[in-house]
Design brief:
Length: about 475
C-alpha cells in the first residue's frame, strides 16, 4: 500500500474525526487507504489476527456517526477504490468498486440511455459503498426503490479477512439472502469492496411540478391523496416555508415564499402515460386548494429545481453553522399532525427546524439547526430532537428510513425491537464477526460498562438521556 496511504499524523486524522452527524466527533488512531480488495483483505486479516477493531469509511457523508471508529483501531477509507469496472448495456448492469461516487456512475452512463436510480441528495459526494452499507434512498426512490432493490452482486471482505463473492448479473432466489443482509448492515458484517448494480432505462418523458399551499394540512392531504389515487410519481418532496426561504437565498431559485408548504413533484414514463398522470395530478392539487402550480418548462429548469432541493441542507448553513437531522418514517396519513407537532417542539425549545423530505415515502427529515459553541442551544436541540423522535414513534413511525442507526440512534433501538429481536440480530452479527471487530459499538444499544471506547472529544449524544457508555 505504501506509507503515503497510511495516515497517522494528528493533522491528517482530523479530517476523519466526524461524518455529517456533527454532534459526535472521534478522530481515528490510524487511517489506511487501500487500492485493491487484496489490500483490504490484508488489513482486515491483520486486524483479525491481532484482535484490532476496524471501521469502513466512504465519503463520510453519513448522518448517524456510522463511520467513526468508536473503539479505536483502523479506519479503512475506500475512496481510492474508485473504478467503474464494467458497464454492460446488454444486461443493464454496472460493476463498480465501492469508492465510486454515486453521481459519477450516472455521469458515466450518460450516453447509454440507462441510469442508476437511487439518488441520495448527497450523491455528488457519497460513495456507492456507503450507499450499500446504509441502504440509501433518495428523491426518485418512491418509484424506483431504494439501494437494496438495485444490488445484484457484492464482493465482500469478511471480518476474518477472507474474500467472498455473492450473486451475479441476474436476480436469484436460492439460499438465504446474504446480499439482502449485507445491504444496510452499516459496515458491521465486513467490508464491501465491489458491487454489481441494476441499471434502469431512462424514461422518454419527464416533467417536474411545483405546487404551493397556504397550510401544511392541505399539502399533507394532497400527498396522501396522490398516493391513495394509485399515481406513482417519480418524486414527491415537501419543503416548509423556512426551507423555501433558505434555498431562495442560497440559490436564487425563485420558489414562491407566500405559502406554508411547497410540494415538488415529478412524473415520468412515455408521453402518453405522463399526460394522463398530469391530468390526475392537477385535479388532486386543485381539490386540495393548491395556491399555485407551476411546471418546469425546460430540462434545465427541472435540474435547477432538483439541485435546489438537494442543496437544501447546505442552504441552512446561512442560519446556523451546524445541523442535526432526523430520518424517521411515519405512515403518510400522519404527515400533517406529526409536522405540526414538530413545529410546536421547535417553538417550545426556541430552535430553528427546517423540514425538507421525501413526502411520498413518509420519510421525514426535520433538520434542527444549531451552533455547536452554544452550550445552552445544544441542550435545547438534544431535548427537542428526542421529543421529535417520540412523536414519530408514537405515530407508528420507525427510527430511520435511509440514514441508518450508527451510534446516533442506537440507544433508541430497544424502543422498536424486543430484547429477543435484538438478540437474534446480535447472533447474526456474531456469526459473521465473532470477535466483534467490524465497526463495533454501532446499531445495538450500548450498556453501561461495555465501553472501553476511545472517545476523545465531548460527545453530547453519548451523555444525554441516560448513560450509554
Ligand atoms: C446533505 C446530505 C444529504 C443527504 N441525503 C441523503 C438522501 O437523500 N438519502 C440517503 O439515503 N442518505 C442521504 N444522506 C446520508 C449519506 O449521504 C448516506 O448515508 C450515504 O449513503 C453515505 O455514504 P458515504 O460514502 O458518505 O458513507 P460513510 O458516511 O463514509 O459511511 C456510512 C456507513 O457505511 C459504512 N461503510 C462505508 N463504506 C463501506 C463499505 N465499503 N463496506 C462496508 N461498510 C461501509 C461505514 O462504516 C458507515 O457505517 C445525506 C447526507 C448529507 C450530508
Amino acid at each position: 500500500m505504501g506509507h503515503r496511504f497510511v495516515l497517522d499524523g494528528p493533522e491528517e486524522l482530523i479530517a476523519y474525526e466526524c461524518d455529517a452527524c456533527l454532534l459526535i466527533k472521534n478522530a481515528p488512531e490510524i487511517v489506511v487507504l487501500p487500492k485493491t480488495t487484496q489490500e483490504v483483505s490484508q488489513v482486515v486479516s491483520f486486524c483479525h489476527t491481532h484482535k484490532i477493531p476496524f471501521t469502513a469509511r466512504g465519503a463520510g457523508t453519513g448522518l448517524s456517526g456510522g463511520a467513526l471508529p468508536l473503539k479505536g483501531g483502523v479506519l479503512i477509507s475506500l475512496n481510492r477504490m474508485d473504478q467503474i469496472l464494467e458497464i454492460d448495456t446488454e444486461n443493464h448492469t454496472a460493476t463498480v468498486e465501492v469508492g465510486v461516487v454515486n453521481a459519477h456512475l450516472n455521469q458515466a452512463l450518460e450516453a447509454t440511455g440507462l441510469f442508476y436510480a437511487p439518488d441520495p441528495s448527497s450523491q455528488s459526494a457519497c460513495t456507492l459503498g456507503g450507499n450499500i452499507a446504509e441502504n440509501a434512498g433518495g428523491i426518485h426512490c418512491i418509484k424506483y426503490g431504494v439501494t437494496t432493490d438495485h444490488i445484484l452482486a457484492l464482493e465482500v471482505v469478511l471480518p476474518d479477512g477472507k474474500i467472498t463473492r455473492l450473486g451475479g448479473k441476474t436476480r436469484s432466489s436460492h439460499g438465504l439472502n446474504l446480499i439482502g443482509l449485507l445491504v444496510g448492515s452499516e459496515g458491521t458484517l465486513g467490508i464491501i469492496t465491489q458491487a454489481t448494480v441494476q441499471l434502469t432505462p431512462k424514461p422518454t418523458e419527464i416533467r417536474a411540478y411545483l405546487a404551493t399551499f397556504s397550510t401544511i394540512e392541505s399539502a399533507g392531504n394532497a400527498v396522501s391523496q396522490i398516493i391513495a389515487s394509485g399515481l406513482i410519481p417519480s418524486a414527491l418532496e415537501f419543503m416548509d416555508a423556512f426551507t423555501v426561504k433558505a434555498v431562495n437565498q442560497a440559490y436564487d431559485i425563485g420558489f414562491p415564499e407566500d405559502s406554508e408548504a411547497v410540494l415538488l413533484i415529478e412524473l415520468d414514463g412515455t408521453l402518453h402515460v405522463v399526460l394522463d398522470q398530469e391530468d390526475r395530478l392537477m385535479a388532486i392539487l386543485s381539490e386540495n386548494n393548491a395556491q399555485q402550480t407551476r411546471s418546469a418548462q425546460t430540462a434545465e429548469d427541472r435540474q435547477a429545481i432538483w439541485a435546489a432541493r438537494k442543496g437544501a441542507v447546505a442552504a441552512y448553513g446561512r442560519f446556523q453553522p451546524a445541523f442535526y437531522l432526523h430520518d424517521t418514517v411515519i405512515p403518510r396519513s400522519e404527515l400533517t399532525s406529526v409536522l405540526k407537532k414538530i413545529l410546536a417542539i421547535g417553538k417550545k425549545h426556541q430552535i430553528l427546524i427546517g423540514n425538507v423530505f421525501h413526502a411520498g415515502d413518509g420519510n421525514l427529515h426535520p433538520n434542527i439547526l444549531f451552533d455547536p459553541d452554544d452550550a445552552d442551544m445544544l441542550q435545547r436541540i438534544l431535548k427537542g430532537g428526542e421529543e421529535i423522535l417520540d412523536v414519530c414513534l408514537q405515530a407508528g413511525g420507525v427510527l430511520s428510513g435511509e440514514h441508518g442507526i450508527g451510534i446516533e440512534k442506537s440507544k433508541y433501538m430497544s424502543r422498536l425491537f424486543s430484547e429477543a429481536d435484538l438478540n437474534k440480530m446480535k447472533q447474526i452479527k456474531a456469526a459473521f464477526d465473532p470477535q466483534q471487530l467490524s465497526n463495533p459499538l454501532k446499531i445495538f444499544p450500548i450498556r453501561a460498562g461495555c465501553g472501553e471506547t476511545h472517545l476523545s472529544i465531548s460527545n453530547p449524544l453519548l451523555t444525554t438521556g441516560g448513560a450509554w457508555i
